[in-house]
Predict the 3D structure of the following.
Amino acid sequence: MNTLAVTRETEEQLFFHNYSRLPIAVTYGEGSWLVGDDGTRYLDMIAGIGVNALGYGDTRLEKAIAEQAGKLIHASNLFLMRPQFELAAKLIELSGLSKVFFANSGTEAVEAAIKMARKWAVDHGDQGKNEVLSLSNCFHGRTYGAMSLTAKQQYVEGFHPLLPALGMVDFNDVRDLEQKVSDRTAAVFIEAVQGEGGIHRVSKEFCHRLMELREKHGFLIVADEIQAGCGRTGTFFSYEQLELEPDLVCLAKPLGGGLPLSAVIGSEKVQGVLTYGSHGTTFGGNPVACAAGLAMIRAIEEDRLMERARETGEFFQEELSKLRERHAAITDIRQYGLMIGITVEGEARHYVERALRHRVIMNATSRNVIRLLPPLVITKEEAQRCIGVLDELFTEQENGG
Ligand SMILES: *Cc1c(COP(=O)(O)O)cnc(C)c1O
């Protein structure tokens, strides 16, 4: 007998109270659908927070994981392991960059990139060059370095003192960028499309100026592609659409096909930055996670999922624009492939809670933004269903429901 109830009440007893979980015990999933233990099927428009690019139950992924798990689950970076090599080679091919470091989570990739940036500056003989800049409204993770870079007050409150020598540039503000960067700048961290910040894309103009200033002051540009990367916006890296040429790139969320995996990819310029013993992690580049990641990327290529993300994304844009004409509560729509933000009047949370009653899982970020990060495999019919439910929610709201 299983006497342990998987409910919100038991959760309160067992866990620290840092998550606001939905009251659904999930058991399995199929495609874009997540199934609760009472058999209820939910259309999942958040896909494990942007992790499940292939949706649920992709057999290629499951097979790759089972095969690798049957051979070797872990050996550590004391050894050479084929799955790591193959995934690293693939990431170098996709990015045109030179070197890969594997870790286990987004924040660890950011942490490694912060260390690399400072080390790179010191290696170039400049002890005073240690300042790391990020953009207002950014999100880079929860460990000390990454958290220190992160904009939201809510994430840093109670955790001071933070990492020193950090600064923040106003989002897309070229003037502010020009004033804030200097010869003391070691790196500028940038999400080409901000995720937690509410789905906002950096302008091409900002990226161009950033690259010019890099020439002048000699700092690194670090692209945090943890949420926007791996094809979600219609290209493998979201910065490609902005003609940005970063020195370091962080990947995570979908990279391990649902298993914990992250990577930092670096250009030739930084290829010597890590020396023996200067950085590392026990689990980083776990062979099962790497095999899963490789299967995930192959599936994206095989099924042309980046093209599909572009097409389905455009469909969302068209349909949501129609909704906007009818519902005054929608004040803005931002769509980059399958990264979609809908700004609403009032609290986005309110809509997310109601969507659940219609069996659609959405997510709120940045207080007034409904965020959709559906799996790349979502069909037009499924997208239409999500839009239909949004239509109903806004109608209910207008009728005072
Ligand atoms: C989620 C996220 C992170 C942090 O990743 P974790 O795996 O949760 O540590 C960092 N940057 C961006 C842009 C993210 O979306």
In short: Residues 105-107, 110, 139-141, 191, 195-196, 224, 226-227, 252-253 surround pyridoxal-5'-phosphate (CB under 6 Å). The mean pLDDT is 96.
